[in-house]
Design a protein that fits this description.
The protein is α+β, with helices and mostly antiparallel strands and 650 residues long. It has two domains: 6-214 and 253-358 and 614-648, 3-Layer(aba) Sandwich (D-Maltodextrin-Binding Protein, domain 2); 364-607, Dipeptide-binding Protein, domain 3 (Roll), CATH 3.10.105.10. 30% of the residues lie in helices and 18% in strands. The strands form eight sheets. It has a five-stranded antiparallel β-sheet with strand order 1-6-7-11-10, covered by helices on one side. A five-stranded mixed β-sheet has the order 20-19-21-18-22, with helices on both faces. A hairpin with a 2-residue loop joins β10 and β11. The chain is globular. The two termini are 21 Å apart. It is found in: Periplasm. Keywords: Signal. Belongs to the bacterial solute-binding protein 5 family.
């Protein structure tokens, strides 16, 4: 197999409809079949540990039916380390992207099919209501303990569905009802819903869908009061406020930094933490999991590379200098801005790296979310005026921003897929109000009665200046602050006083996703309402819907919390629930289009420009890395490119 050619790019990019065939069973090798056909090999350092009696033989460590991964180019060789760079103390998802997420199922590298992973096979039955998974036999945690149905039961019953631990996440509910779970036999588990759930497999395939297999019962149960009568003593010793916090401190969660802070926590990951990611850390080290349950097509236990090493930098400039100096072996996250491209391209020979294409489809470089559920009643009232939002959009000179900050690359855009042939393309949602028209913007603001004060800034009904902040994370996207600075200047011309509020990532999430303290915020725009993804810029259903966190809270609490939304939003909530249950791809598409039409009419959020195809760097001697890969969070890129098969050629 060669590098990933354009003919293999995901259906999302080609404009075809992604779907899951619910009537079929995805099969792997029968249990024990590989062991009967294949002899296994292992890294030399592991062979030495077997010889010394420190580890069992490789056949026992990979299990009866290990997952077979076909390298993209060639069988690799063992050894060496892979270096990448982290930003500050809140870059835990970068570690997740490099290590990879190991769920019951996973997307294939082309993002067109969901295939077995920790499950050796799965079956969807009862009209898309029941999901049965046969666990891969013989899998072990990184400390050598068996992975069993008891681990899955602990994860689901004692954590996922335990309101005393945390509210049940919407991804594990349907129409407000949580998924039902049962252990069928010693190798089989089943998840069931009262209604069809067309998105559930895609939910489990995403990096945020690992919860059924995230925690080892034999280790993490010690932090759970149902399993340890002395948990209060552990709470006191750790200085934690409660057992829930104690649990997260020691066992983490899918997207929290403490997931990578405890070397004692057993995992099912490719590499395991040795030097933890904690406050003040300057380096993070992960070493190969000796019990990793994947092999290549010749029976070599993966991964090929011994360890991952990440230096922690406080700014992108340090990462760029490290790349140019040849100290980064793979880089994508943080490096892939337009401003960085020229200097990285010019120094390829010096840094001994090549560049690869990171494909996007339908993203917006930056979406602006006015908080329509702001706690400030005057701002909330004016933000909820559609003409006000239209005026702000018309007051943005997008081409100036593209030419100045994005180096002339990209086109003015609101949101959604770029290609008209894409089934999720919505012309109105994507292209309305993208022209620069300050004269019309001023007329709309005048029509709302927002008169200018002596300094030219418009006044709210109370007489206070029309002023607000937009929160952004400069360490995540450095170009956001630059773009917002131009927007600030452009809006000042139409009498709106906006200021940029750069904040640290953890604080950003707390302000904008949890406490709803923000006036406005920015984020990237999603490509489409693909299976398993939340259309957060169309319907406020998750933490990234920063334009309506109060409405999100109302929806998630079934009306008990938050703010009651208008009827147009309630209708989209209904469509969202209906779409999640649709097992017919065409039915699901029709519902998504209806929701997008409503969002286009309401015009609640607005964007700047089409996200450009980005890029990454990879050392010239690193093998099995494709020349291009889809850059998408639901794949946790580069996870889909199987870093466990990368190897050093020399």
């Amino acid at each position: 197999m060669g590098t990933l050619s354009r003919s293999y790019l995901p259906a999302l990019r080609r404009g075809r409809l992604l779907h899951i065939a619910l009537a079929t069973t995805a099969l792997s090798f029968p249990a024990g079949a590989l062991q009967a056909q294949m002899s296994y090999s292992q890294a030399p350092e592991l062979a030495e540990r077997v010889e010394a009696g420190e580890l069992p033989p490789v056949e026992e460590r990979v299990g009866e039916d290990p997952l077979v991964i076909e390298p993209i180019d060639s069988i690799g060789t063992y050894g060496g380390e892979l270096r990448f760079g982290l930003r500050g103390s809140s870059d835990q998802n970068h570690i997740l992207r490099m290590v990879g997420h190991q769920g019951l199922v996973r997307w294939d590298p082309t993002y067109t099919e969901i295939i077995p992973n920790l499950a050796s096979s799965y079956e969807v039955s009862n009209g898309g209501r029941d999901f049965t998974f046969d666990l891969r036999r013989g899998v072990r945690w990184s400390d050598g303990e068996p992975f069993t149905v008891e681990d899955v039961a602990f994860n689901v019953e004692d954590l996922m569905l335990n309101e005393a631990f945390a509210p049940v996440q919407t991804r594990y509910t349907l129409n407000g009802d949580p998924v039902a779970f049962e252990v069928v036999d010693e190798d089989t588990v089943r998840f069931s819903f009262d209604e069809p759930n067309g998105d559930f497999l895609a939910v489990l395939a995403a990096p945020t869908g690992q919860h059924p297999v995230l925690y080892s019962k034999h280790y993490c149960s010690q932090f759970h009061p149902d399993y340890n009568e002395n948990v209060d003593q552990l709470i006191e010793e750790a200085g934690a406020p409660d057992w829930q916090t104690l649990f997260l401190q020691n066992c983490g969660d899918t997207e929290v930094a403490t997931r990578w802070a405890n070397p004692d926590r057993p995992t099912l990951d490719t590499w395991v933490i040795k030097e933890p990611y904690t406050g003040g850390a300057t380096r993070v080290v992960l070493e190969r999991n000796p019990y990793f349950w994947q092999v290549d097509t010749e029976g070599n236990q993966l991964p090929y590379i011994d360890r991952l090493t990440a230096s922690v930098s406080q700014d992108v400039e340090s990462l760029i200098l490290a790349a140019i100096a040849g100290k980064i072996d793979f880089g994508l996250r943080h490096l892939d801005t337009p401003a960085n491209r020229p200097v990285l391209a010019q120094n390829r020979e010096q840094g001994d790296y090549r560049m690869f294409a990171a494909i996007v489809s339908g993203f917006n470089q930056m979406m602006i979310d006015l908080n329509l559920t702001s706690k400030d009643p005057e701002l909330r009232e004016v933000f909820n005026e559609k003409d006000f939002r239209i005026a702000l959009s018309l007051g943005i000179n997008r081409q100036q921003i593209i030419d100045t900050v994005l180096l002339g690359e990209g086109d003015p855009w609101q949101q959604g897929p770029f290609e008209p042939e894409n089934p999720y393309y919505n012309e109105k949602l994507a292209t309305q109000y993208i022209e620069y028209d300050p004269e019309r913007a001023n007329a709309l603001l005048d029509g709302l009665g927002l008169e200018r004060g002596p300094d030219g800034i418009r006044l709210l009904p109370s007489g206070k200046p029309l002023a607000f902040q937009i929160d952004a994370i400069p360490t995540y996207r450095a170009d956001w602050v630059d773009m917002l600075e131009l927007v600030r200047q452009q809006w000042a011309e139409i009498g709106v006083d906006m200021s940029v509020n750069p904040v640290e990532r953890t604080y950003f999430y707390e302000r904008t996703s949890n406490s709803n303290e923000h006036d406005a915020a920015v984020w990237v725009g999603g490509a489409a309402w693909i299976p398993g993804s939340d259309p957060h810029q169309i319907i406020p259903v998750n933490h990234d819907a920063r334009w309506a966190i109060g409405w999100r809270d109302w929806y998630l609490s079934d009306g008990a919390e938050g703010m009651e939304p208008p009827e147009s939003v309630k209708e989209r909530f209904r469509l969202y629930d209906e779409a999640r249950g649709a097992t017919d791809p065409e039915e699901r598409l029709a519902i998504a289009r209806e929701a997008a039409d409503i969002a286009a009419e309401e015009f609640e959020v607005f964007g700047i420009a089409k996200a450009m195809p980005t890029y990454g760097i990879v050392k010239n001697d690193l093998g099995n890395v494709p020349e291009e890969m889809l850059n998408w969070w639901d794949l946790a890129t580069p996870t889909q490119a199987n870093p466990q098969t990368w190897y050093w050629k020399d």
